[in-house]
Every structure is written in C-alpha cells, then in structure tokens.
Amino acid sequence: MKSIWIITRRELASFFDSLMAYVIIITFLGLSGFFTWLFGNNIFLINQADLRVFFGISFWTLFIFIPAITMRTLAEETKTGTIELLSTKPISDWEIVIGKFLSSLLLIVVALGCTLPYYFTVSYLGPIDHGSVIGGYMGLIFMSAAYISIGLFASSSTNNQVVAFLLALFIGIFFQILFDILAANFTGTSGNIFDFLSVRSHFDSMSRGVVDSRDLIYFLSIIFLGLLFSKTMLSKRNWQSN
Known about the structure:
Shape: globular
Radius of gyration: 19 Å
Number of strands: 0
Mean pLDDT: 86
Number of domains: 1
C-alpha cells in the first residue's frame, strides 16, 4: 500500500509540475461554467435550481479530457525507459498500475471539487434535489474512473502518447456513443444488452439520485478489466525487455 501511495504522489506531482493539471482544471471549469451559467440551455433559462446542465456538459468534457490525462502515464515511461527502472524496484506491476490510476482519478476529483461553488450557488437560488446532485457527482467520478482504466490500457499498449490518446478515445466512443445508438435501434434482448453496455444509461440513472447495484457493478467491471489489461500489457513488456 505504501508503494501505491508513493507512485500516486509522484504521478500527481508530475501533473502539476508539467502544468497539465492547471490546464485541465482551468479548461474544465471554463467550459462547464460557460455552458452552465451563460450559454444555451443554462440554469437561468430553464429557471430550475438543479445542475443537470453542468452534469450534461461534464459528461462530455471529461470524456475528452481523460484520454489526454492518461496518454502519458505508461506510454511516456516506456518511451524514456523509466518503466524498466521502476520495474526493477520492489514494486509489483499491480502497484504501478493502481498508483497511476489513483493519481489520474485524484486529479479528476480535484477538478470536480473546484465546481462545488456551482452547487452552493444553485442551492442558494432555490430548493435543490441534493440526492440528484450527490448522485451526479458520483456518476461523474465512476465514469471518470472507468475511462481512466481504459486510458491506462491504451497507454500501456504503446510508447506513443498520440496513439495512446486516439486508442483510448476510440474505445471510449463505443461506451459513450455507439452502444447508446445501438440500444435505440434494437429491441428485445439485443437492445437491453446494448443499453447495459452504454455509459449514458448508467450515468443518467445515478444523476437522478438512484444508486443501483447494476450501475456500480457496470462501472467497477470496466475499471477492473481496464486495470487488468493494463497490468497484463505491462507485465508482457517487462518480460519481453528481459
């Protein structure tokens, strides 16, 4: 556990040292704030004290930002050779993967934490469904964790950051868009399967304040498989380098 925390702190510090964390957080706050308060279907236009607009825009901005965060986590280490040095330490591949996963997730949690003034402001403007807000934030965190695990797998599959970004985005498109489209065009068992595979259906369920065990199982399954595949790819590279 100590090794995981050391890797997590090291990776999180590297995000802030490279200015990536500041760019991600500021851009995320700028986009979410602009669409939540000023543009289009904003809070003042719908005249309701809720954060549906914020959760809706965050659902898409995090989908784009997360591959940019994870693309360097393992790909850059492999390219520079530091992953081989790290592998010689008394640290398991699982600890490396989980440490990098937690660092990326903590960065997202920090970004979401910076949006809490939105919640306090809206609750001041009128009565707000606190359960749906909590569920919405939980949905964003679980969704982010799932995409981070996918991004880690993509980063573990190549030593090129651009390729890692595009691969993570390509895989994510299936969960973010395609499964949702297929669910709308199929009925019966096939439609139910595609609907279950869609991130949208589970995120929408949680953002309504309903935390269903099926939603938790869905996200936890993607997280586990993404981390497992990342660990497998990392172990394969270490074995080949030896």
